[in-house]
Amino acid sequence: MQTALAFPEGCTKLELSLASPMLNAKLFVESIFATLLVFAVLWIFSVFPYDIKFLNPIKLLMKDFKYTDIYYSKLADRDKPINTEIVLVNIGNLDRGGIAAAMYGLQQAGPAVIGVDIMFYSQRDSLSDLLLKEELSRPNVVVTNILHPQDDPPSVVNSHDYFGDLNYAYANLVAGDSLNSTIRSIMPFFDEGGYYAEAFTSKILQTYDEGAFEDLSSRSNKVETINYYGTYEQFVSYEAEEIIFGEFIPETISGKIVLLGYMGNFVGDASILEDFKYTPLNHEVVGKSIPDMHGLTIHANILTMYLYRQYIDMMPEVQSVLLDFVICYVHVVMFMFMFVRFHLWYHVFAKLLQFLTSILLIYIMFYFYEIHHYKINATLILITVLISVDVLYLYESLAVIMYKRFGLISYFIKH
Fold first, then answer.
1. What are 192-244's pLDDT values in tens digits?
2. Domain range spanning residue 330?
3. How many structural domains compose the chain?
4. Which of 13, 117, 211, 253 is the most buried if burial means most Cβ atoms within 10 Å?
5. What does the alpha-carbon distance between residue 24 and residue 21 come to, in Å, rounded to a whole number?
């Protein structure tokens, strides 16, 4: 004997099917709208003008954090062999006469190129300036200046005119605020509005290794992500006084790149923050305490990347956004199903899935970054997956409102 199924008054079989907390078309369709809501909420958080405590972690992550910071800070190999092609020389507290003497001593050892990361804005002692001018004017010396690309037309700030038309190249590093932001990128060339200039490291590379310079130029990237090799300990280093008094091994300088600049009172000194920058190697990944690397060492890392052809290739922005949307959508489908099917345990299951997803994603990103030098923007992916769990509560509220006002049946609505 068959028993007829009785449906609640005013409710059709189709409506019951749509309201069923199982996998169906409505789940997959509504997950698209829920995913769009996740991105909308994320955008609101990113542009919210006021300082609200619960928004601060999200805004901080979006503003100055990249998952590669974790790689460099916690996972990267810090026992790499010393790069003997680049020599760091710290001027410490030397005056101009001492800097000139150090450069003279370096030239006696026959370096391929000397990069001078120092600005001389005014004239001082006549004899010291004369000696310094002679050393700065040598053909294998590259001297830094400061590029102002925002000017119309672009302009540069050089050392004092007394030193003449030196072999200048801009020392700018890419950062929103070079004093407080993490240095992750370099602009190898500037070519806009008919104005062309080369970065300090690019011009040094051209002098030292023409083939490597051509490879850099052929990439045609306006900005390159810096693949950090290590701290000053991964490079040969001297104090300028050691050069002046001949307390060095000439073979370590002959035919090599020498970078001359300020690295504190002594190499490794972290007590003075002059020309000290934040880098991804900082031990504090979020909310950094103090800067961790002098500009001279950052230039050494950039040159190492160029010489070893260890470039970081970036996933195109369009592909990155599409990948983020797909991953977020897949998780929203699972979260929405859990929300309706296992509402009592929703947060437990969702948080567990978030944790597993985060571990898997970070592992995949690190694998591509370390092995293939390919960077995927995982920060946005992780943030959208993390906030989607709570955004579903907002979506449920909107679904209830739409049902009460317009009678629209949602996956969340049990008729």
1. 988 999 999 999 999 999 999 999 999 999 999 999 999 999 999 999 999 99
2. 17-64+314-406
3. 2
4. 253
5. 8
